[in-house]
Amino acid sequence: MFIQIKSYHLLILFMSILSSIPVLAADPHSVAIPDEAVVQKLYLKINVDFGKKIISGKAQWTIKKSKEAEAIHFDTKNLTIEKITIDEIENPWKFSWGKKDEILGDELIIPLKDNTSIVTIYYSTSPESPACQWLDQQQTAGKKLPFLFTQCQAILGRTLFPCQDSPGIRFTYEADVKVPIEMLALMSAENPTEKNNTGNYHFIMSNPIPSYLMALSVGDIKFQSIGERTGVYAEPSMLEKSAYEFADMQKMLEAAEKLYGPYRWGRYDVLVLPPSFPFGGMENPRLTFATPTILAGDRSLVSLVSHELAHSWSGNLVTNANWNDFWLNEGFTVYFERRITEALYGKDFADMEAYLGMEDLKETLKEFEKNQSATCLKLKLEGKDPDDGMNSIAYEKGYALILLIENTIGRDALDAFLRKYFNSHAFQTMNTEQFIDYIEKNLFINFPGAEEKINLNEWIYKPGLPTNCPTIVSSKFIEVDREYQKWTDGAAAISLRTANWATQQWINFIDKIPSVITFERLEELDKTFNLSKTGNAEIADAWFLQSLIHNYSPAYIYMEKFLIEVGRRKFLMPLYKEMMKTTNGKNLATKIYSQARPNYHFVARQSVDEILKWKN
Ligand code: BES
Ligand code: ZN
Q1: 48 Cβ below 6 A of ligand 1
Q2: 338 lines ligand 1 (CB under 6 A)
Q3: Positions marked catalytic
Q4: Which domains does the chain have, with CATH numbers?
Q5: Atom 1, ligand 1: which residue's CA is nearest?
Q6: pLDDT for 456-477, tens place per residue?
Q7: Could you give the CA distance from residue 261 to residue 424 in angstroms, rounded to a whole number?
C-alpha cells in the first residue's frame, strides 16, 4: 500500500524534533491547533473600568505558524471583539467565528498570511466574564474602594483575554494596565510594591506560562516584605495580620529549594484577597492569590502557602498537558507541600494533614460510589467542565500514590528522581503516559520489583483505592482519640486536655462527633470551647457541618454570617449539601443563599446553584 506523507507532516515532525517540543495530543478543552499556529509572546494593553466592570484594550500576540497554516484559532468566551489587525498593518483584518459551546465558549478564527507573525485583537470583557470578580467597596476589608481579582484556572482565561487556553501552550508576556489612580495593580509577573500617581503599571513575565496562570488584581493594596525574596500584599487593614501569619514564607522557599532545586521565578509573594475568593489559594506565578480564611492568627493554616509555593515546580514548571492529567499538578504538589511542612514544622504536623487528607479522600470515594470512573487518577473530562475534576481524587489519591512510591524505593531515591524530573522538564508539558514512561526509565529501572509492587496502572487507570495504599498514622490524633474517648464516656468537656491543640486536632475531634448525641452535650462543647464563634474558618466549617447534622440550631446564626461573608467553595459545598437533606434545611439554605449569592464568585455560584437546583 502506498502511504502518502504530506510535506507538512514531515515539517511538523521536524519542527518538533528541532524544538524538542513533543507534538501534543489535542486538548479537549481548547480549540487551539498548536501544530498549525501557536502563540509565543503576549503584549497586553488594557484599561480596568470599575464603573462599567469591563476590561478593554488589546492583546497583541506574537505567533509561530507552520508554512501551510491558513488560520490561527483562539479560545474566547464572554468577550466582544472590536477589531483585529495583523503584523504592522493598521487596517482592520478579517476574522470569523467557529464552534460555539456552552462550556468552551466561542472559537475565534483569524486567517493568516504566509509570513504573519503578529496578531492584534482589540477586545473587551463583559461584566459577567467569569474570570473576573468585581467587588464593590462593601465586600472589601477597607470598605472604601472597590476591588477586582481574576481566576483563570481551569478554562476561565478565555473570558479575560483571547488566548489559546490550553495548559500545554506557553507564552511570555508584558502588560500595560491602567487602573484608577487610588489603586494598585498586580499580576502574575514582576510587580510594583507601591502605588504611583499615574495609575499606569507595567508588568513583565519573562518565563513562559500557560494561560491558566494569567492573573490580575486591582484594589487598595499594600505590600510588606517578609524575607529577601518573599513578601505579602493585602488590603491595608489586613496587612499586619497577613505578615504575621506568613512569617515563615522565606523559610518555606528555602526548604522547597533544598528539596527539589532552585526556585526559577525570582520573587515569591502572596496576595491576601477579600473573603469571596472561591479557592483556598491559586498558584499564580510569582504571586499566589490566597483566601483570608487561612489567617487563623496562630499560623496553623499556612500549609496552603507551602502548597501554592510547591506549584512553582509541580504545575508551573512542569505542567499537566491537559485537565485529564490534573493529578500530575495536584498530587505532586500535595506531596511536595507536606515535605515542606515536615521540614518546617516536623513530621507529626505533616502527618495530621496527611491523615485529614485521607479522610477527605474516603469521603469523596463514597460520594462517587455510583460514578466510579471519576475516581481514576487519569480523568476523562471530554465534553465536561474541567472543574468537575477538582476534588480530592487528584490531590489525595495522587498524594497517596507518591507516598507509596516513597515507601517502596526510599526517600532519597524519590527525591533525586523528582529533582531530575522537575529539572529536565522545566517549562514543558507532561501527560500521564509520558510520566509513566519517564518514571519507568529513570527510577523503576534501578529498583527491580518496585513497579509490580506499586502497580501504577491500577492506581492511575482503575477506580477506587488500591489495597497497597499506605496507611497514614498520626501520633497527634492518638492524643485526640484519648480525649474523645473520655468525653464520650461521660467526662465533662472542661476536663479534657486540649490546651495545646492545633487546628488540625480540633478538626479531627469535631469530625468524630458520633451520629447519636444529645443536644446538651453539643451545647456543652460549644460553650466550653466557643466553637460557634470561633474565628478559625476550618474549625468553624467542621463545627457548622456537625451542627447541621445534629440539628444544633444555636450555631445557625453564626453559620449564616459565615456563609454570607466567605465564598471559599470548599467550605460552602458541604454545608449547603447537608442543608439540602431535610425540608427545614432546604428552607434555611434558600434563605441564606439568596443573601449570600451576590457575594460569591462565578465558580462558587455554579457549584452551589447545582446543589440547590437554583434557577435565577
Ligand atoms: N490550583 C489549585 C486551585 C484550582 C484548581 C483552581 C482547579 C481552579 C481549578 C490550587 O493550587 C489548590 O489546589 N488550592 C487548594 C488549596 C490546597 C491547600 C489544597 C484550595 O483552593 O482549596
Ligand atoms: Zn494545588
Answers
A1: no
A2: no
A3: 308, 395
A4: 318-461 (1.10.390.10), 477-612 (1.25.40.320)
A5: 282
A6: 999 999 999 999 999 999 999 9
A7: 11
